[in-house]
Amino acid sequence: MPGLFNQISLDVFNKKKINKLESEVSDLKRNLAEANYSPYYNYSHLYAAPFDGEKTPGEMGAAKDYQLVYDFLRVRSWQAYLESEIAQIVINKFNLWVVGKGLKVQPEPVSEVLAQENIKVSEDFIKNVESRFNLWTSSRFSDSAKMTSIDYLAAEAHKNAIIGGDCLVINRVENGYCNIQLIDGAHVLTPFLETHYIKEAEQRGNRIEYGIEISKSNEHIAYYIWGADNKIYRVPRYGEKSGQLMAFMVYGNKYRIDNVRGLPLLAAILETLKKLDRYKEATVGSAEERQKIAYSVEHSPDSTGENPFLAKIQQARNLGMGEAPESKSIDDYEAAATKVAATTNKQAFNMPIGATLKLLESKNELYFKDFYTTNIQLVCASIGLPFEVALSMYNSNYSASRAAIKDWEHSMKTSREKFSNQFYKNYYNFWLDMEILKGKINADGYIKALLTGDLMVIEAYRNARFRGINVPHIDPVKEVQAARLRLGDQTTPLSDYDQETEGLGTGDFSQNMNKINTQKKIIPKNLIPDPKKKMVSELTIINKD
Question: Taking the alpha carbons of 204, 206, 207, 213 in that order, is the dihedral positive or negative?
Fold first, then answer.
């Protein structure tokens, strides 16, 4: 019987084990099915687990899908710009380099594309466009308020975009001339109280988000502006009759693709700027308070408790040694009482027994520079502006300083290209159409392309670059020599005169040549130095070898 009992027990044990294994397999299959697991597309056949970026549960905290509150971000960003000197330094320097006193147009019509359409660009097209556009953008009549100019408005638009997140630009026509009006992004609002705007947009198959009417393809259709007279105005993006681009947004930064409003450039560092400001005020304030009490007297248990400055205090109050002021007026007594009692007139004190004179000092100020400078560097890095450029501190060697300058030059050109495409390019296209339609600029085939909608011809004519002030060179001599080498000889140039003149920041090559030719007519020939007839460059030597 014992053998039979053991056999029955073993069978029961095996059955329980089999049932447990089957249960585990069933649970595993269910987990794999819920995780959409396929053994053919996974590295492991044991189990599958979701991965959300967190390796240790709870280490990263809750995942947050931020929904931007644009109004508060805009207000906090402007507040930081007003209260924090760091924000002002970084934003002002960033805006100064990217836009400065305005960008100048450099028309570059794509002649290859126009040649395919049997169109030849006139010889004076580039010269006329460049001279007329640059003249107009520096005129106060290009501002709808007749107060400044487009070059100044460009700097304001860029500043408002990077601080507030975005701003609205409206193209206007007055007496046949194009001008611009800027609208703060804070005034672009959804008309919740006037629901007929929302219903009309829905009837057109559109929707209104944060003051912008958007189509199903996410194209901007119109903008809703809260005017100074507390009325809502709907401004279409394209003119209803002309089809021209009449209103557009300029963005400082964008958060996600679906967001229709801009993000302030300071959004990620608003809290840091506020804490740095409080830290600076606390450090400076504590240092000021300590200076009011220069030192104190510490008494040991054996001290008599005598005040070593008692005689000076009595003298100040005319109660002890010393001569009292001759005048007994209230002003004289107040002047004597406000004197620091510890003033010794360069005398040495014989301290009482057990008394020690202690200076009030703190080491907080010693670490202030390192802590504050490190955080300023982080703020500059988040903006994309090198710390050396923001504070104009080039204390490193030539190579390090030049590396910082070249790094900023790349960032600046990228930011300038982004802004010019949003602001200058939109206005330039509008202005060019008006000038050609008025017959001021000769562009063969352009009007026909406008009527027929030939975008290739239109874009080929509109192609242009917008250039501003370049970063100054640390060693101008080396930069000029490098430019001469890049020009090479007539057979192997690596650049052209326009690019090198622009790169050196010495103006426009064509205008420089015209000025030189004019000046040569005025200056006597015997005073004009003969140019070198031959220039031996490294590129020429390499080619001969």
Answer: negative
Contact between 192 and 200 (Cβ < 8 Å): no
Is the overall model pTM greater than 0.90, yes or no?
no
Cβ–Cβ under 8 Å, residues 306 and 355: yes
CB atoms near residue 162 (< 10 Å): 29
Domain boundaries, the chain: 1-54, 71-95+123-270, 294-359
Average pLDDT over residues 171-195: 92
Enclosing H/E stretch for 2: helix 2-34
User: Are 176 and 258 spatial neighbours (Cβ–Cβ below 8 Å)?
Assistant: no
Query: Cα separation of 3 and 8, whole Å?
Result: 9
Which of the 8 DSSP states describes residue 421? Answer: H
> What does the DSSP 8-state code read for residue 167?
E
* 336 φ/ψ angles, rounded to the nearest 5 degrees: -70, -35
What confidence tens digit (pLDDT) does each residue in 510-522 have?
666 666 666 666 6
d(CA 426, CA 453): 18
Spatial contact of 408 and 389, defined as CB atoms under 8 Å apart: yes
Buried b (16+ CB within 10 A) or exposed e, 511-544: eeeeeeeeeeeeeeeeeeeeeeeeeebebbeeee
Share of residues in the chain with pLDDT > 70 (%): 64
What angle in degrees, to the nearest 10, is found between the helix axes of 398-422 and 150-164? 100
In whole angstroms, give the CA distance from residue 249 to residue 502: 29
Q: CA–CA separation, 393 vs 387, rounded Å?
A: 8
Mean pLDDT for all residues in the chain: 78
